[in-house]
Write a structure and sequence with these properties.
The protein is an alpha/beta fold. The chain has four domains: 123 residues, Rossmann fold; 96 residues, Alpha-Beta Plaits (2-Layer Sandwich); 104 residues, Rossmann fold; 92 residues, 2-Layer Sandwich (Alpha-Beta Plaits), CATH 3.30.70.1450. It contains 14 helices and 24 strands. The strands form five sheets. It has a six-stranded parallel sheet with strand order 3-2-1-4-5-6, sandwiched between helices. The radius of gyration is 23 Å and the shape is globular. The chain starts with a strand and ends in a 7-residue tail after the last helix.
Length: 458
């Protein structure tokens, strides 16, 4: 597949890394020559320096025979015009644009993206993706990472194991025997800097970070088994009233259960806009780092503090302040991945990486055909893939134990006729089943071969 990626920032670079690693023909376009050089020096891609929306630049990038255009520059308008030029001049069949402005995303204006108007096939909103990720974190406060699969019936939970975890030093095979009715399976373990797919004989140790597939109905029980407490989150303080904070506050107001939320916003105009848009949420104007304002917001009584300003360091410090003031659970928005190792020493419970959520969203739309969902783990070290089994797939009609999966691949859950089951060696995979897999990045091409989807993109 020939793909042109416009924008060589963090998101564009990560998408180029994924697609070039899967032997696609990738060209990166950016008006910053240094970013283009970084991409061509570190990845197996071609690079063009220039404005992505200019027809002559897209011509040089090979738009006439491109299969897909991904517009992920920092400008909404450049992304939109790029898709228009790709469609009108070059007839590129599939176009994906990243748009940030909420005005472009309002549902009543959705006709704008019709093929005869502004022909964009998929619109990705980083702020909307991040807001949804924040809500998932709030719903599972014991987890540092969480994502839904199989139509919401299954959750992927990332759990940090503490010294008091009751199942430390227990082989995973024995855990399965001890909790035979628990619909959960450990599919990934991060020990130190290494992420791997565990074997049945492997044990879990303190400070391990594990990824668990669990049926939604068994989430609380699973969390308790791994030594975490289940807490209700009905008092939330949101630091940052921009697009992300406002989207989270609106979603909390829309929930049937009553959640008391407060928003702290430093910019007065932004705070007034948030106050006008929200009905029951209290909006405070001031600095989220001010201990007086945090006390006024009642962080000592809050069940969670969500720091989602546009500055990473402000988010880190605000979360630390809230924690020291007595809040038991803090979540940070972190754009710079080099700051993530500070989460542990600073005792921040969870983080949201906008780059990772946007990359996962774009990958989900790139891998069409029978792949229904893709979620990127860590720094693109692994992927969770949800896909439907075709009759032509090599795994159709075979038991899990008889399928020649690579070592870095584990089956997390299987949906048969609307019912979710925990896979065991004797589980038969049939045509039409939907399965979720944890796969190390190097094994993703082999997984796509097993699903027979690598050429079924559209």
């Amino acid at each position: 597949m020939k793909v042109i990626i416009c924008g060589a920032g963090q998101v564009g670079w990560q998408i180029a890394r994924h697609l070039s690693g899967e032997n696609n023909d990738v060209t990166v376009v950016d008006n910053n020559p240094d970013l283009v050089r970084r991409a061509t020096d570190t990845l197996d891609v071609q690079g063009i320096a220039g404005h992505a929306s200019y027809p002559d630049i897209l011509e040089r990038a090979g738009a006439r025979d491109a299969d897909m255009m991904i517009a992920a520059t920092h400008s909404d308008e450049v992304n939109m015009v790029t898709c228009q030029v790709a469609h009108s001049v070059f007839g590129v069949p599939r176009k994906i644009a990243r748009l940030r402005s909420q005005s472009y995303l309002t549902a009543i204006y959705s006709d704008l993206y019709r093929r005869d108007h502004m022909p964009i096939d998929v619109v990705i909103s980083p702020e909307r993706e991040v807001a949804e990720a924040a809500l998932r974190r709030l719903a599972a406060p014991a987890a540092f990472d969480t994502q839904s699969f199989l139509d919401g019936h299954v959750q992927l939970l990332g759990l940090q194991l503490d010294d008091d975890c009751p199942v430390l030093d227990t082989p995973l095979r024995q855990l399965t025997d001890l909790f035979s009715t628990l619909r959960a399976i450990v599919v990934g373990v991060r020990r130190g800097e290494r992420l791997f797919a565990p074997e049945p004989k492997d044990q879990l140790f303190a400070q391990d970070q594990i990824y668990v597939f669990v049926h939604t109905e068994d989430v609380n029980r699973t969390v308790e088994i791994f030594g975490k407490t289940v807490q209700k989150q009905d008092r939330v303080v949101i630091i940052g009233g921009g697009n992300v904070g406002l989207a989270v506050a609106r979603a909390l107001e829309a929930r049937p259960e009553r959640i008391r939320a407060k928003v702290i916003e430093r910019n007065r105009a932004c705070a007034e806009m948030a106050a006008d848009a929200l009905e029951r949420t209290i909006v405070l104007h001031g600095d989220g780092l001010s201990i007086e304002l945090l006390n006024e917001a009642g962080v000592d009584r809050a069940h969670a503090v969500l720091a989602v300003t546009d500055d990473d360091k402000t988010n880190l410090l605000a979360a630390v302040r809230a924690k020291s003031a007595g809040c038991p659970f803090t979540i940070c928005l972190i754009n710079d991945p080099t700051l993530i190792p500070l989460m542990g020493p600073l005792k921040i419970d969870a983080y949201i990486n906008p780059r990772a959520t946007t990359v996962s969203s774009i990958l989900r739309h790139i891998r069409h055909g029978r792949v229904r969902g893709v979620y990127s783990i860590g720094d693109a070290e692994a992927e969770v893939i949800e896909a439907q089994v075709l009759s032509t797939s090599p795994i159709a009609g075979r038991m899990v134990r008889d399928i020649d999966f690579p070592e870095g691949v584990l089956v997390g859950a299987v949906m048969k006729g609307g019912e979710v089951i925990r896979p065991v060696g004797g589980t038969r995979i049939d045509e039409g089943d939907i399965i979720t897999l944890f796969a190390m990045a190097a094994d993703v091409p082999e997984v796509e071969r097993l699903f027979q989807v690598s050429i079924d993109y559209f």
